[in-house]
Design brief:
about 190 residues, mainly beta, 5-stranded antiparallel sheet, 3-stranded antiparallel sheet, 2 helices
Length: about 190
């Protein structure tokens, strides 16, 4: 079932059962990102009324699609809009560091900040593309508590002062990147 929690007891065994029974993994953010919007949840594992009203028809569609497939075959998913990530940041000269924060529509998943000296295109899988030169020059987890914006800092020494710094936020669910923010470019500091 959908949940904000990761690695709940027994989740790792789901794949083993898929060959013997029809299993609906409804906790994959990329399958329905809108379902993980904060306003649809009462707590980390229960919908509120608005969430239940959004979830019920989607569940019915998934059950019907599953019954039409042989046991052991995944139910095909229609494409969905990615979870919006809004990345903001600036260089704090007094602290000699870049301070960045991201607002995310979903509370599910880990947020990671990546930074590079150049932009570029890199496929992360599942139709998600990073806009930075890969591998990134710097990567750090973003800290977030509850519904607060996630934050991260990168030391100013990580980038030359006479060149731009490029940043992007990634939303990672399990081992899969499910969304990226637009690239944020901060100008040279000199």
């Amino acid at each position: 079932m959908p949940s904000w929690m990761h690695d709940y007891f027994g989740r790792g065994h789901v794949a083993a059962y898929q060959e013997e029974a029809r299993v609906l993994a409804l906790d994959v953010v990329a399958d329905n990102p809108a379902l993980f919007a904060r306003e649809l949840w009462y707590d980390a594992s229960h919908f509120n009324r608005k969430g239940a009203e959004a979830f019920s028809p989607w569940l019915a569609e998934r059950v019907a699609a599953s019954l039409a497939q042989p046991v052991g075959v995944d139910v095909p998913q229609p494409p969905v809009a990615p979870v919006p990530l809004q990345l903001r940041g600036a260089f704090d000269a007094a602290k000699d560091r870049f301070e960045l924060e991201v607002e995310c529509a979903s509370l599910r998943g880990r947020l990671r900040l990546v930074a590079a000296k150049q932009t570029g295109q890199h496929e992360l899988g599942g139709g998600v593309t990073a806009g930075l030169h890969w591998p990134p020059h710097w990567s750090v987890p973003m800290e977030r508590t509850g519904v607060a914006r996630a934050k991260a800092t990168i030391p100013g020494s990580a980038f030359p002062a006479d060149g731009p710094a490029h940043f992007q936020a990634l939303l990672v669910d399990g081992e899969r990147t499910v969304a990226v923010s637009p690239v944020l470019t901060l100008p040279p500091r000199r």
